[in-house]
Amino acid sequence: MDKYAAYVKFTAKAGERDKLTNILMEAANAAQTVKECELYLINLSEKEPDAVWVTEVWSSADAHKASLDQPETRDSIARAMPLIAGVEAIPLNLLGGKGL
Amino acid sequence: MDKYAAYVKFTAKAGERDKLTNILMEAANAAQTVKECELYLINLSEKEPDAVWVTEVWSSADAHKASLDQPETRDSIARAMPLIAGVEAIPLNLLGGKGL
């Protein structure tokens, strides 16, 4: 399967998690009309109060890369960066399963 | 959102990852007819050769719990256990996004 898949953990600076979450939820909403974006789920972490996990699947690595060049994505990133203490990506090789 | 969501990392014993992956893919296939199971994706890890990550979303925690009592799930678990060196779950509070 040539899809691009990853879990991305954003760790917010103290007190900024909700503002960061809102920006990521806006991004997920904007992705509704982007067919190459197949999954973009926003999760909070029960174990880590400052963490926001994004589950993402794109039709290809190129599609994911191209999305980062979109003006609205650049704007989201610019607004989110000051709120972020750390980013950790877990790149995945999606084999398949139920739901996509 | 009251859905049950988690990332679960299964670490296979040396040389057993592919057998474990097959069992998990069978489980994902069996989940195709289980409407409470909304997402059950099987991923290999580029960083960790013995790891298999499962992305799962269920309609509720109860639905997820009930699934563990199903005979075919018990059978899969029994077949998988000897292949597994470790299991690590990242419980999530799914807020929403695209794809579900």
TrEMBL record, chains A, B:
Among InterPro entries, the record links this protein to:
ABM_dom (IPR007138), Dimeric_a/b-barrel (IPR011008)
Per the UniProt record, the lineage of the source organism begins with: Bacteria, Bacillati, Bacillota, Bacilli, Bacillales
Identify one Pfam family in the record: ABM
Q: Which organism is it from?
A: Paenibacillus mangrovi
What GO molecular function terms would the record report? monooxygenase activity
Source organism, top-level taxon: Bacteria
Q: What is this protein called?
A: Antibiotic biosynthesis monooxygenase
All copies of domain ABM, residue ranges: 5-76
Question: What SUPFAM superfamilies does this protein map onto?
Answer: Dimeric alpha+beta barrel (SSF54909)
Iron among the record's keywords? Answer: no
Which controlled-vocabulary keywords does the entry list? Monooxygenase, Oxidoreductase
